[in-house]
Each structure stands twice: as C-alpha cells, then as structure tokens.
Amino acid sequence: MAKSINKNLIKQAVVASLANVRQSTSHTKTRAKVSGGGRKPWRQKGTGRARAGSSRSPIWVGGGITFGPTNERNFKQHLPIKMRKSAITEILKVLNDAKKIIIVDSVNQKEIKTKIVAKLLADHDLTGKNVTIVTSVNEKNLVISARNIEGLTVVENKDLSVLSIANAYSVIFEKAAAIERGLIKEVTEPKAKPATTTKTKKAK
Questions:
Q1: Residue 145: enclosing H or E segment and its boundaries?
Q2: pTM for this structure?
Q3: Which domains are present in the chain?
Q4: Digit-coded pLDDT (tens) for 57-103
Q5: Can you give 59-117 as a three-state secondary structure string?
C-alpha cells in the first residue's frame, strides 16, 4: 500500500456514512410515558415496606426505563463534500494498489439476463464475492439483471459513495466511468493535418 494513503480520512468517511444510514428504531418509554401507576401502591407509613409513590418507577418490574434508547436520537454526521470526494479517491487508490480494479469496455445489456452478469463475474473469478460495478450512465437492464446476485452492487458513477466501494472485494469500472474518475487517460487520435497545396507560378 502506498504511503500517501490517508487512512484517517477513509475511516472518518466510513464511520460518518454508516452513521447516516443508521435508523433510530429502538425505543423505550420513560416513567412519564408508561401507562398506569396513577395510584400510590400503599400508604407512606406503617406497612414496614419501603416508600413507593408509583408502580411505574424504574426500579419496579414493568416500570419505565432509565436512559434507554429512543427513536428521537439523531445519529447523523456531517462530512464536507470535498472530504467525501477525497475519501472515495483514497479508497480507489487502495483498491488500485491491490489490483482490485477491473476496467471493461462496456457493460451495456440489450436484454435483461442475469446469466450475462454472472458470466462477467465468472470471467474475472469474482463469483460469490462483494463486487461493485460502476457505470457511466444509468444501465437499467444491468441493474435489473444484477439484483438477484448476492453481494453485487451496480451504481452510476455520479452516485458512487464511500459505502458502495468500502466493503467491495473488487470494483468493475466501465471504461467511460474510469476515464471520468481519472483512473485511465482518454486516448485521442491525432487529427490529420490538412493537405497543403503548392501554388505554381504562371508563365509570362
């Protein structure tokens, strides 16, 4: 791995991305939200038992929960756009150093067939592994064909995120998308020089 890889930036971007997709589904009720407990269980004095004001106390079975998780908690973390883009570049450097980036001419499919995508993975010995295919434009047929293959993700180049490549064993780039990301240089054919005409002097 190259020494110029910014590992701290990659970790920060991955942690922030995971936090941003986290859902606050766990929820507990405090003693104020638990039903019941309106009446004092027993009188204050004379019973020999400890004082109790409500059966919804956190120390009672069926009572409220103290400091429990609630669905009001916000896990969002803000990461500047420049840092996100830089993190993607750093991850691509890591994958490139490990020779895990594959560039193909085109992934366009004229028909919806999972068999074609499976063959593409098999040809590169990637069957059963976490793979991300990056396209230059939205390839609907490819997306539909790939959705039944476990571990395979198809993403358009402009929508490429940290999480889409952070856990990938290998990334397959369409040639046009690889050029946009600067992974390869676009080879342009030199323009032909216009033919020069020589003027002949007219005889006097």
A1: helix 140-146
A2: 0.73
A3: 100-180 (3.40.1370.10)
A4: 999 998 999 999 999 889 999 999 999 999 999 999 999 999 999 99
A5: CCCCCCCCCCCCCCCCCCCCCCHHHHHHHHHHHHHHHHHCCCEEEECCCCCCCCCHHHH
